[in-house]
Every structure is written in C-alpha cells, then in structure tokens.
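Repro case for the chain-ordering regression, as requested:
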Amino acid sequence: MERQVDATFGYLSPDDIGLFTDRYELTMLRGYRETEHTPRGTFSLFFRSLPTNRGYVIGAGLEQAIAYLRDLTFGEDQLAHLREEGFPDSFLEYLADFEFTGDVRAVPEGTAVFPNEPLLEVTAPIDQAQLFETLLINQIGFQSLIATKAARMRDTVRRHGDEQTIVDFGSRRAHGTDAGLKAARGAYVGGVDGTSNEAAGNQFDIPVFGTMAHSWVQSFPSERAAFEAFVDVYGEESVLLVDTYDTVAGAKTAVEVARETDVDVRGVRLDSGDLAALSQDVREILPSEMDIFVSSGVDEFFLREFFADGGIADGFGPGTSLTTSKDAPTLDPVYKLVAVEEDGKMQPSMKLSEGKVTYPGGKSVRRFTADGTLQRDVIARTDEDVGGEELLVDVVQDGDLVYEFPTLDEIRERTLATLGKLPADVRAIEDPAEYSVEISDTLTATAERVQSDLRQEMDL
Amino acid sequence: MERQVDATFGYLSPDDIGLFTDRYELTMLRGYRETEHTPRGTFSLFFRSLPTNRGYVIGAGLEQAIAYLRDLTFGEDQLAHLREEGFPDSFLEYLADFEFTGDVRAVPEGTAVFPNEPLLEVTAPIDQAQLFETLLINQIGFQSLIATKAARMRDTVRRHGDEQTIVDFGSRRAHGTDAGLKAARGAYVGGVDGTSNEAAGNQFDIPVFGTMAHSWVQSFPSERAAFEAFVDVYGEESVLLVDTYDTVAGAKTAVEVARETDVDVRGVRLDSGDLAALSQDVREILPSEMDIFVSSGVDEFFLREFFADGGIADGFGPGTSLTTSKDAPTLDPVYKLVAVEEDGKMQPSMKLSEGKVTYPGGKSVRRFTADGTLQRDVIARTDEDVGGEELLVDVVQDGDLVYEFPTLDEIRERTLATLGKLPADVRAIEDPAEYSVEISDTLTATAERVQSDLRQEMDL
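-- result from build under test --
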C-alpha cells in the first residue's frame, strides 16, 4: 500500500543536468541536426537594464556554469523520457554522446558589470551553444543577483566602519535547495562572511555559523534553564537568543548565566522588536566582551536605518531579503545569438524585436580606471582595440578548460576591491548614479549596418 | 594543471539532503541529545500574513517535503564534514542512524490557506522535529508561493472564458535548478497546463511545451528559410516565432510557408511589442486554424490588460513573474514550536517576541462552506470540535506513511475547484477582500492563559 516516495524528491543528479533545459532548446537542436544546419554561433549572456535601485551588478556563478557545460550528460532515464516524448533515436544517440567542443569567454566572478555587457560568450556549433541557454542564465543570473544584494549590504556596513560580520541566514526562504546553496555562495562572493547552511559550507568551503532558535528556549521549563543547558554543551561558543519572552530581561538572564557558570559566553542574538533601540539597551547590560548579533528583516535599508538610529551590533544575519533578493528578485538576463558563421566567417547577427534589440557580434568590454576609481566602460567589437582593461577572459577553448578558477576567497576579495573602486554615487542603495557605458563607434556602425541590411532583405 | 570541476556543481544527492539545514538546527540537535532533553514537541508551519495583493495562498510542496522527511540520510562525506566542524562522534553516530519516528498532519496540496493556519504540523521527539525546519519551510514555502501565483493567472484567464493554455516558460529565471523544477510543479498545482522544462516534465509527469527561439530564425539566411526548415522537421506541430524582425511581416511569412508547404502549421508566437494590438493584427492574417501564443512579461496583471485591450490568444507563456513570484517573492513561512511534552502530556507553548506571537498548541483548522462558497475558517485546538470541515489530514504516523498522495492532476483539480469556491473579491488580483479566519474561543483563552503564566513565571 505504501507508495515509494523517493521518485518525487525532484533533485537533479549529474545525469539529470542535461535535461534541465527548455523543450525548445531540444526542439531546435533536433532541427539543427536534421536540417544539417549547424553553423558556428556566438551567444552572449547579458542583462538589458539594472534592477531597481541597483547601480551595478556583481557577476557570479561562472564556476558552476562551466562545470555544467563541460560535464553535462544525458542519462538513460533522461533519454528514455525523450524517446517517449517523440524524439527520434538518431537524435537520442547524438545526445548520449553530447560533448561541448566550443569556446567560452567570460568576466571573472566578483567583477562589476553593467547593462549590455556580456558576462559570458559562447562560440560553438550552434546546436551545442544553444542547449545551454536555460542552464547558463539560470545559474549565472541567480548567483549574480545574490552577490549584488550581498555587496549592497557589505557596502552599507563598510560605510559605518565595516566592523560587523554578516552571515547569510536565508536558506529556508530561498527558492528551493539549489537556491539555498547558490545563494550562500553568491552572498559570499558579494562580501558576506559566512552562511548558516551546512551543505553550502561543505560544498563550497564557506564558514558556517549558527546559534539557537526560540524552540530551544521554549522547550525548557525556563529561559534560564535553556541558557544553562546550552552553555553546558557549547561553553564559550554560546550565542544566546534573548528575545523569546522579553529582550532586556533575556539579556540580563544571559549575563547572569555567564557569571554563574563562569563561562565567557560569546554573545546574544536579538530577533524582534525595535532592534536599534534594543541593541543600545542590551549593550548597557552586557559586559564588553559579549557580542550582539542582530537578525530579522536585515537588508541594506535596515542597516542604513539601524546605524542612523544609533544601533550597536557585532554581527547581522540577513535572511529572506538576501536569498530572494526580495526587492528585485531577477536580473532578467538573456542569452542571445550575436554572430553566425557564414561562408566560413563569423557574421554579426541581431534581431529587431521591439524594445529587445541586441548589439551584434562578439564583444570586448574595456574598463577605464583613473586614480583607483572606475571611470567608464566601452563595449566594442572583439577585433578592435579601444584601450582600457579587457574584462572578458578565455575560459574554455575547443572544449578544454584554459582558465584557472580562483578560490572563493580570491573572488570575494575581488568583489571587495571592486566596491572600493566604484564611485560612491554608483554604489548608492537608492537612486544610484548611472555608470558610464559607451558603445564604440565601430560597434555602433556595425549595428546600424546590420539593421539596415536586415530591413532591406526583409523588405521592411 | 586542469582542475577537477565536478565538485563545484553544487547539486544535492539524497545523501546530501540531511545537510541542507541551518547550522543552528544541528547545534540544537546536539544540545538536545547531550543534555538528554528530548521531550516530544509539536511544530507548526504557517505564514503570518498574506503577501502583497494576495487574498489567499494555495498550499503546495507537501509530497516533496514528506519525501525528504522520510528518506533523509547523512552520507559519509557529510558526516566527515561535520566531524571537521567539531561535532563529536557520538552525535555523528546518531545522525548516521537518523530516522523520523514522529507524526505529520498537513493540509492537502491544492487547498486555499490563510494567515496563521498551519500548512503542516510535525509532532516528534524535539530533536527529530527540529532538524526539518529549514527544509520544510524551503520546500513548502516556495511551491506554495508559485502555486498561488499560477492560480492568480489561471483565475484571470478563467474570468475571460478560460480557453487559453498557460505554460510555465520561466526555468531560466528561476532561482537555481531546484526552483526551476519545483516552480514547474507548483505552477501546475496552481492551474497552468504545462512547462517548458524538460526535467520537470520527466520528474513530475507534467506536459512539456516548446517552440523556437529567435536564434533559430537568425541562424538562417532569412526568416522564410528558418520557417521552412522548421516545418520540414516538425510539420503540423510547428509553432513559428514571428517577431524576430517584424511581427506582422513574420506572421504573413508564416502563413505563406504553411500554404506553400501544404502543412497545417499549428500557430505562431508573439514575444515583443504591443502584444494586444499585434495579436489582433496577426489574427486577421492567420487562417482560423492557426493559433496565437503570447509570451514576454506575462503575469496576471498583463493578462487583465491584454483582455481589456481586446487581445486575442490561444495560449500564454509566463516566465520570470511566475517562477520568481516577482511581485512577492516570499511567503515568509515559519516553523514554530507550539507544544512541548511535560510530565507525559503535550503542553501548549508560545513565545512573546514583539510582533511575532504564535498561537499555542497543535491546531485544527475548520472550514465552513455555504452554497458552494467558502464562508470562513476557524482555527481551533485539536481537542475541540467547532464544526465545519477539518483541513488537516494525517500524513505520517509513528514514521509510517498513512496518506495516499493524490496524483498531480488530482491536486490541480483540487486547486481549480477551490478557486471556484473562493469569493470573487477574495480572488481579486489587486486589493483583495480579507477572507474571514477566526480563532476559536477556547484557543483564544488558551493563548491568554499561556501568556499570563509566562509573564508571571518570567516576572515580566
């Protein structure tokens, strides 16, 4: 009678990753194969405009995206599913042997990027490059979104001395398990100090933090008994949650328990009420060596208010706002064909869809810095040199990895350095100034030529 | 030189699922074990208020949540990680043998739920029940969010005749792979007809839909050549994307290709511009048997405008707005201890944290219906009978599954039936009316008594 529930986990093994794609990618792949139309194509992954109140985006997620691209396979179960769905055997054989043999250029993780700048470009036979649209947007879009949100919080804390620890507490509110893991990684890239998610800590080697929940306190006959039991197990590592019944009374009890047990309890956590005011009251109660951690509704706007109201804390635990990027839950990235091989040469390509125009051709993004401050970027053709620092680096060539992935700590350092170089008004968390991104004259001329040719050909 | 990239996928195998939890859950578990304090506890999963513009929430995700709860294990790699993090061997042995032996009651998927009503209650030794907080909130919270968003779109289409197909096109913008899969499932629960995500189709047996991208059109020398090649492979199944260069011209080309190839092409897709106006123009051009599918920016508000502006379509493909629930990307669900065993009896428990009060004790939710319309709910104690239909059913008892999961189609039918019973003003997509949820007199009295006892004990 008992039904097997394992099948309904909905998790993806490496064998399943090939199938994490939209049907139309497979439909097109089959079409490209059957019509023997597989010219090389260049696809560009970028976003068209910045989300609300964002002056910049921190690129993240490249390492996972490349792992998927290089190691993707279609398992037996997946091929059987596609057979049932009507895909012919010849196509399934092609998928069973699928291997990426193309090139990838990308902006290293931890770099600030702006509208229309490619985070990544894939050049490969069009069927190969097409398949990854869904997965690349999904992975790079999400981690970049979260890295950006985290950077805004880190930057707000930095403006007030940068003494506080920030820890991602948001796994429970992330959109599924992969989001919990990748938000922890993205947030670390963006400058937070750790995560509460144990699996993310394990997979990405991110420091893991945790205290106690209200349930711990409630489960004992009294708050005092709950604190004593915790200190008995965890000693100096103990951080006691003091707002279950009354924050100020709880803080006093925490201090008494520390004194009576003669343990240098690490600190307390506040999770409700007027946190700026309560933190000041609690600071008066605690000995100087005990820390205050603040959670509940933490985001960059909360932090700005908290400091403005004289709040005192040693650490913050943002949750939902961080892992869902609640005020702007998408970057809306796209992955567009910008060049197609014709007569053995890559020709710039574009669509003319209203409000969705894409600059044609593979891109070079050049960044100009003066006195340690970013001045402007120029988006150019790959075959022109407009000066400045090139943002895109070679990652995969002919299917082989040619890039040494930096460690997560190196990526995080890059983000922090980037924040230091971005003008303050571009980093503003509300109504930021617009960073200057120019289109090179040659690229502008190319776009005009391609458009005009298209309109002529299409008789528009 | 080449670094192994497999380790950086960041996917979760069943062996990893145990570790998808917050550090503090493990900290508490260890504390409960070491202090030999493992009374039975009841945890209630609910949300405190409705997201913006929501008049109801459709519960979803129960089946996956229960699969995790029953089949969760800690693998060798996970235990090794915890050992490195300082957890003692005795605790690791406990985790290695972890098994859920408690009870779960829950609201069946596809049911409308309201603030403070438990979607699920877990009663088990407190250490066991505690562990699942992160995973249960993560899974049920997200799928319910998406089912609700989808229901709002289905309901908007229903108000205009309900003739249109709605397909989830949003995998690429979902927050990671699990979100892509679970959004597809949640959206189907909420009343859409299918998904573009092939893996979701495979895992959950959801119909999969797909057409072509602009890249297909761009990759050929002309739009006409692209359409001809596609029709050559897909015949009557072909849906041609007509807005790459000019929507009206593209539609005319699609009709010509259908005529010249003598194939009953299924239809066209519009993906940019003034979609309501263009759909009318395109309808004039197409023969009646060819369908119009509309994508780009589709959500319930778009649909309302589209119909108001006289738009004509046979199907819609919502993307980002659906899979991120963009206007309200979290339900903010919580999982709170509401009862603890004391002297062999379950005693109601609550915290007093400002603005975060929880009604104590396990709950019964009773629904009253008259003339096929939902009238009101009453949240009561489990030991009282206030009449009405009980929403929570037994799902797991003593660790054994005692519930037959409905099929996904049955769940979807339940949602559609629920929508039919909800008052129209509660279903409004903007400023909905508040559905009446009462707290029973006995539960109110219990809450007052527990609060007063707590304040007295704590000397507040």
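Ordering looks correct now. Chain B has two domains: 15-146+328-457, 208-317.
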